[in-house]
Specification:
There is one protein chain. By secondary structure, the protein is an alpha+beta fold. It is built from 19 helices and 16 strands. A hairpin with a 5-residue loop joins strand 14 and strand 15.
Length: about 525
């Protein structure tokens, strides 16, 4: 085995696969870049290209990319992960070729293959998805491994989209924290600006993006590589179109680049929201001073291009801020707010954000106004429609076990996401009853026999479990399984794995690298 744990092994299929990857090198490099970037907000980084083209970085990038099922999808060159593994030389030869092209300066991104996917809950509407070649995806992953720690230090704690260890639930918990009362008084938030940027990913200006990248990166090879990915063509059927704006959705580095641009929106509200290098108390004191002097205050919570601005003030202040925000986006980022989707809503009437219905209501127990998270009726109806589509008459040709295997992932994902909503157990019980009736009607159509025969064959009790629809080893899950609970507010300093040395790590240093390996796998 080569030095640094980069040996190779022969798989049964023939092509040589990369063996153990030097995880310590990657994580140590990322931790150092993050700490240097955090310690010096004005620092620019050079000589990063050697890290991107390093064989250890490429091997780690391959391991991360190969875990994704999308690695089997070929790009415009028709090459997927399986084809790479089965050809002569396998992955080792593939990585050697990419490393040689990067170091020789001959690497050029290929056009991405465009695929139109339907938008969830919006019949007739599609979203363009760009599928880069496998080689381009690997280089983008290596580039992301180097650039992400640098820019992560500049991202605001009120931004949650496409960031390590952050989720949609954290964004909703942040809103809930601001709307809930504190020890002294009710929340002052009265209105919400629901922001919607028109075609955000398709209209990001390349010049504005590169300006913000150059604030931190001075390595010309890295800058040329980022620009080459932005200008890579898009193949629509047999025609290659070269975009002048936008970051293609589907690229591994696209979410990071969009976050770099959209951080400008967070910076606009830095007077009232905590910055990446300050405490929450400072922003809270500034909001308090402005409110006491009669000024309106604003607090933004953003998840990628979806964001809401919480307004403490009259509706006129919210209207003025909406116009000012639209002008700011147009002049600074060359983006447009959607006038029909950007709404100003009374928070007591509620608004939808990231799949939840958020309402400010009076608590019957304390009499104070609190933030309540509800499951929107539209989401419940969409779920029922999806289950109906999967259990229609054509599905009678399938076995019950196939229907169960098709529904179980949907049930598990849905209940996991909405288990933090208020009275979620009540809605889950209704869904369980409705689904029981749906499966029973399906069985009566498929097996026109007596009720007793259906229950004897398909409604059985697992050892130590309740009665449920069963066939063979397939057992239908229930929405109400697992219980419900509020999502805990994790604060503004959510660990990303790179700050573990300075802030989060307090244990034995001998356990540091085993813990970092677990973070890398997660």
């Amino acid at each position: 085995m080569a030095k640094g744990g980069s040996g190779y092994s022969e798989p049964a299929g023939g092509g040589r696969q990369p063996g153990p990857v030097n995880t310590e090198f990657i994580l140590d490099m990322q931790c150092k870049l993050y700490r240097w970037s955090q310690a010096a907000p004005d620092k620019t980084f050079g000589d990063l290209f050697n890290l991107v083209s390093d064989r250890r970085t490429l091997g780690y990038a391959w391991r991360k990319m190969a875990r994704n099922r999308g690695s089997r999808t070929p790009g415009t060159d028709g090459m997927g992960r399986i084809q790479v593994e089965q050809r002569t030389g396998g992955v080792e030869r593939f990585l050697d070729e990419i490393e040689a092209e990067l170091r020789a300066g001959t690497y050029r991104p290929q056009p991405v293959r465009q695929r139109l996917i339907p938008k969830a809950g919006k019949p007739g509407q599609v979203r363009p998805l760009g599928i880069p070649t496998l080689k381009d995806r690997l280089v983008q992953m290596a580039l992301k491994l180097v650039l992400e720690p640098i820019f992560e230090a500049d991202f605001y704690p009120t931004s949650f989209g496409f960031r390590r260890r952050r989720s949609t639930h954290d964004a909703i918990a942040m809103i809930q924290r601001q709307v809930n009362p504190n020890r002294w008084c009710n929340s002052r938030i009265t209105y919400v600006i629901e922001g919607d940027i028109k075609g955000c990913f398709d209209n990001i200006d390349h010049h504005r993006l590169m300006e913000r990248v150059r604030r931190r990166i001075r390595d010309r090879k890295i800058l040329r590589l980022v620009l080459a990915f932005l200008r890579a063509g898009i193949m629509v059927e047999t025609t290659v179109r070269h975009p002048v704006a936008g970051t293609p959705q589907g690229g591994i580095i696209s979410p990071l680049l969009s976050n770099i641009v959209l951080t400008a929106i967070d910076e606009r509200y830095r007077r009232w929201t905590p910055g990446p290098y300050e405490t929450v108390t400072s922003a809270t004191q500034r909001r308090g001073r402005d409110y006491n002097s009669g000024k309106a205050t604003f607090y933004i919570v953003r998840y990628a291009d979806d964001f809401v601005v919480l307004v403490s003030g009259p509706r006129a202040a919210a209207e003025a801020e909406k116009e000012a925000l639209a002008r700011f986006l147009r002049e600074e980022l060359r983006l447009e707010l959607s006038p029909e989707k950007t709404l100003i809503t009374d928070i007591r009437k509620g608004f939808d954000f990231l799949g939840y219905r958020i309402v400010k209501k009076r608590s019957p127990r304390s009499g104070r106004f609190v933030c309540k998270l509800l499951i929107p009726l539209s989401r419940l109806q969409r779920l029922r429609d999806t289950i109906k589509a999967r259990t229609k008459r054509p599905s009678l040709l399938l076995a019950l076990s196939a229907i169960i295997d098709n529904l179980n992932p949907l049930i598990l994902g849905w209940r996991t996401y909405y288990r933090h909503a208020m009275r979620a157990c009540r809605e889950f019980s209704k869904l369980d009853h409705w689904l029981w009736e749906r499966i029973y009607r399906w069985l009566r159509k498929k097996h026109p026999k007596t009720r007793r025969t259906i229950f004897r064959r398909f409604y059985r009790r697992a050892p130590g479990g309740p009665l449920r629809w069963t066939e063979g080893t397939a057992r239908l899950r229930r929405f109400s399984e697992g219980g419900t609970s509020p999502y805990p507010f994790r604060g503004t300093k959510i660990t990303n794995g790179w700050d573990i040395i300075d802030e989060a790590w307090t244990g034995d240093r001998r356990d540091f690298w085993p813990m970092m390996r677990q973070l890398a796998v997660a």
